Amino acid sequence: MGIIVNKENKNDELSRRIDADLRTKMGGTGVIDGDTPDLVDEAEYVKDFKKTSKFGWVWIVLILLAILSLISIFAF
After folding, report:
1. Out of 5, 33, 34, 49, which residue is the most buried by the measure of CB atoms under 10 Å away?
2. How far apart are CA 58 and CA 7, in angstroms?
3. In the 8-state DSSP scheme, what is residue 28?
């Protein structure tokens, strides 16, 4: 079941009822004031990952230079 609510539809009562209904279906884990927990850091497959350091852009530059050098070698 789905309900399409457009921005032109300023029916606050309908929005509150839909929000309350969805919260009860989700088990009371509703979002209040835009504080959405995304739980990405707690996912099992990213548990052992490390964040990219501040020099991660260097790898991108090196890869681009390698591609440009390959293109220049084979093009000329």
Report:
1. 5
2. 44
3. S
